[in-house]
Amino acid sequence: MNKTPKKANENKQNKRTPEQKAATRKLTSRIVVGVLVALVLVFIVFIFVTTNFMGSESLVTEVAYRTTVSDSISTTGFVIRDEVYIDDPNDGVLVYQVSSGDKITANGTIATIYNTEADAVNYQKFCDLQEEIDELENLNNAFSSSNIGLDSVNNRLDQKLISYIDSVNNRDFVNIATVESDLLSAIYRKQIITGDQKNFDDKISQLEEEMSNLESTMNESIGEIKSKDSGYFVSTIDGYENCFSLDDMDQITYTDIKEVKPKKVDEDKYVGKIIKGVNWYLACPVTKEQAVAITHSNTSVSVRIPYASNDSIPAKVISVNQFTEEDMAVVIIECNYMSPALSQIRNEAVDIDLNTYEGLKVNKAALHDDYVTKSVTDEQGKTTTIDSKVQGVYVKYGSQLLFKQVYIVYSDEDYVICSENPTDDVLFNGTTVALYDEVVVEGDDLYNGKLVD
Fold first, then answer.
1. What is the CA radius of gyration of the chain?
2. What is the band of 82 on the pLDDT scale with cuts at 50, 70, 90?
């Protein structure tokens, strides 16, 4: 009977007053606010540390590497040479002793004449056999008299294989025979150095026997065709020979180039032509603005003829023909480099490289203005530090960003070329971007000395 009243008394004692409840709620609110403030402070500290000491995750760098660029003018070039036709005797079958593009001396043999086609074929085969024997004998002598490493032989084979593939892909049929012969020679060298072939004595004996059998059935040639002049031989004729005189090249106009047409030539009367002298010329139409650029550049230029040669050809501007301000101009360029492919071109796409710039290629997005410092000592021996605001780039060096001044020698839409070794009077403190530097091209809050990942 006493238990029930006891519970009632306990509940009565535990019951909180309104004042107590309000105090509890106030205390809880303070605790929640304190926790939130603490979390905000932790977040602010985290952002501060990651930004100033750990760097930005969005930091993007590019390696500065060396490159060469040129101010170029793309146009077409009409080739002008001093060319002389070679008469064809019109009797017998010819076997050429020189290839197109080969240099020949005055009174040099261009071709031998045979009475029948069979005689000509036999003679050509005889020459091919002799050439193969000479090559194999040279290989025997080379490997018996010197030690040649396998790496050297493999590198040579790789180069010749690449040259052969390039010639096939570029349809360079003028040089394909030479490239193929070089590749075969490289394969023979590999066979000897690896022991797959001890020597070529057996092969040489076989070829010599073939030559002996062939020689017994051959008939003598009935004549020769010789060159009256020295120069470069070309077996083809296009009708543009001597359309322009070498003495009047400073008078050639854009209209002359545009309207030039080949002369009618009976090719059966000639076996080819001789390009006399060492120099040949390109007549290139250019705009008025391009003519001004050429006039104000060096006379020494380089030309690239992509469909005829992979080489950059040294050349010289000898004339810029522009007779009225409105006219298109014609630039006359002198060249003296010759190859089989170049000996046969006439009207080709040409790139004229005027000024060439070499340096470190840097993305334009990497350029910034910032201060660099240097120490200066006066006559009394007192050293002070001075600052100067310059254009430069931020470079990632270990876990730190360094600001380096740049000296720009060429600028494009997307990148600049910076000098690797500017003169002392150009740089404020003597420091500039260097080869293989990790240049920052994207990042936030960049400054000299910033710590990064």
1. 40
2. very high
Give phi and psi for 157, each to the nearest 5. Answer: -65, -40
pLDDT band at 448 (very low <50, low <70, confident <90, very high): very high
DSSP β-ladder status, 65-87 and 109-114:
unpaired
Backbone φ/ψ region at 175: left (φ over 0), alpha (ψ -120 to 50), beta:
alpha
Give dist(CA 147, CA 339) in Å, integer. 33
- For tokens 């003028």, name the residue: 174
* CB burial string 394-429: b at 16+ within 10 A, e below: bbbeeeebbbbbbbbbbeeeebbbbbbebeeeebbe
Strand positions, DSSP E, 176-269: 223-226, 231-234
d(CA 233, CA 343): 8
Please state, as a whole number, how many other Cβ atoms lie within 10 Å of the Cβ of residue 205.
11
Which ranges of 339-450 would DSSP assign to H, the alpha helix?
Answer: none
Contact by Cβ (8 Å): 440, 394: yes
Q: What is the pLDDT of residues 395-415, one digit of tens each?
A: 999 899 999 999 999 998 899
- Indicate whether 168 pLDDT > 80: no
pLDDT band at 6 (very low <50, low <70, confident <90, very high): very low
Q: Which residues share a beta bridge with 400? A: 397, 451
Burial of residue 234, with CB atoms counted within 10 A of its CB: 0-12 exposed, 13-18 middle, 19 or more buried: buried
Categorize the per-residue pLDDT at 47 as very low, low, confident or very high, splitting at 50, 70 and 90: low
Q: Closest Cα partner for 172 from 308, 74, 279? A: 308
Q: Does the structure show a pLDDT above 60 at 113?
A: yes
DSSP label at residue 207 = H
Mean pLDDT comparison of 30-39, 119-128, 136-145, highest-scoring range? 119-128
CB 80 within 8 A of CB 318: no
Cα–Cα distance, 280 to 303 (Å, whole number)? 13
pLDDT band at 42 (very low <50, low <70, confident <90, very high): low
Q: Report which residue type is found at 361.
A: K
DSSP string of 5-60? HHHHHHHHHHPPPHHHHHHHHHHHHHHHHHHHHHHHHHHHHHHHHHHHTS--TT-E
Distances (CA, A) of 22 to 14, 15, 19, 353, 405: 16, 14, 5, 88, 67
**Coil, strand, or helix at residue 295?**
helix
Kindly report the average pLDDT of the chain as a whole number: 84
